[in-house]
Amino acid sequence: MAVIELKGVEKSFGSVKVIRGVDLKVEHGEFVVFVGPSGSGKSTLLRLVAGLEETSGGTILIDGRDVTNLGPAERELAMVFQSYALYPHKTIRGNMSFGLEVAGFPKDEIRQRVDEVARLLQLSDYLERKPRELSGGQRQRVAIGRAIVREPVAFMFDEPLSNLDAGLRVDMRIEITKLHQRLGATMIYVTHDQVEAMTLADRIVVLDKGIIQQTGSPLELYEHPANLFVAQFIGSPKMNVLPAAFKDGRISINGGVGIEAGKMTGTDVANVGIRPDDIEISPDGTGLIHGKVDVVERLGSDTFAYVAVPGAHAVTVRAPRDSAVAIGQDVGLTFRPERLQVFAADGASLRPRPGV
Amino acid sequence: MAIVSKTANSASFRNSRRWLTVALALYFIYTFIPIFYVIVSSTKSNADLFGTFGLWFSGDFHFWQNLQDLFTYQDGIFSRWLLNTILYSVVSGVGAALFATFAGYAFSKFEFVGKKLSFALVLGAVMIPQTALVIPIFLLLSKVGLVNTPWAVILPSLVFPPGVFLMKVYADDALSNELIEAGRVDGAGEVHIFFNIAFRLLTPGFATVLILAFVATWNNYFLPLVLLNSSDNFPVTVGLSQWYALATSGSGGAVLFSIVMAGSLVSIVPVIAAFLIMQRYWQGGLGAGGVKA
Lengths: 356, 293
What we know:
Chain A is an alpha+beta fold. Chain A contains eight helices and 20 strands.
């Protein structure tokens, strides 16, 4: 277990700044997920922590020890790579033993530790096989096993599930959650998949353009996004965004009637956001905004209606699965004003956030 | 609507296959005729060599006699030449392949000052024929007193720029950065990673460069011709050409032609053997399963 602390960490590749001053503290046993679109710098940040990239500025502390200029091995972290990165010419046992052999552990202890971890990950039957004889899920388990065997102070995961098919990904996600509970170790996990982030994390760090956009628990991010980027990135389907303006103490959405503004930290309103689950379809002529149903997707558990609203992007609505909504229908859309997110022209949220 | 390309049964496929077969057959004949000529000629006596049709056997099978003459002429110096060639080729081949692997790995996986320039120099060196460098090499080695020693052939042959280029490209492709990083996270040093992880996955590339460098040295003529002057140090190429020169000069050496032919045949056998032995190292899929692309 370890506390990992980043202070003003920066990274440039040539003249391109990839990480622009990141401050972050990951507590003992915490599961932190870095999430963001590709090019956001999330993987680079993880690699900086792991010591696979050199920082251009700032310091990295592990348990109070400055490790900024230390190599990956001296940081005593373990890493699980997207491509698994198993040594193809070694057996599963060889792969899992390698780190301990390098560290000069006695043979008996290596064997004992590998056997133990293999049992934990249900790999005991495969120890003498080569990686190519294993399925994708098993290979990723080996990669995780190789990390566990060394008893590192913290685990780094770099998009470990991206190469697995959808079903297996859900299974492995659950396994990783269980593993975290069992080991109680500090873990940093990088993904571009916000569902993975929401389900795994104690705390999510949303990154974009090398800057932390927001840090918080999954629900905090969902309920109180700090800005438009976070609002749209977290949650599936995406939050609907409509143009809006502040007039006479009320918010006018898409040029329509004004609704009660509620608590706000400013009046520079440019957009409002509303989650698909917070919108209800009402008969034509009622509701706060109006549109025509463009597409209806019936997923079984939910029905998604995409409503074309004049002057705005299509609005996604999550309707009950037995909803009678039909394509071409004119509908009204209604929602509770307190569920509305309000954003300034620069994208910052105008809703006061608890604890900020 | 489906787009169906040529199948094995379509007339146009059979037609183009026929033409390709003819073209390849012609090319095969073109490359095989000299070898066939050597094989046929090595079975003939010196008289038959000039008295019978060049591309077919004569009635008199003189091969064993030729072989015996080859290995006994001038106190059997041909064996010495053969051993020299083997020594030069094996040491140069293994050395050049090792250096090429080190350099290719470094060019592929490390960032260092002057990397682009050095690699441009390697690429440039590929285009300079060794023949053009033989005189400077001679002057250089004569300064340090290495002329007319095995080192005079081996040292220059250890430099094999095409091998460096090949290994760089091969390492780019066959060796994922994540594998090396996994090794680093596991605590292994760079040397340990190279020999325990990287080298194993670079073996097919290594084998390719080894055989290319081996054959290049085996066939090298001009370099040893200039740098060696005692017959004891000659490789087969230089030795045989001396005999050939002796044969063409007339003066009683005419009997040598059939020996030169037998010698030529003997000298290509180890190369063919080397190709057959190394073949199994060109197996694909060595890295399969380690990383997911």
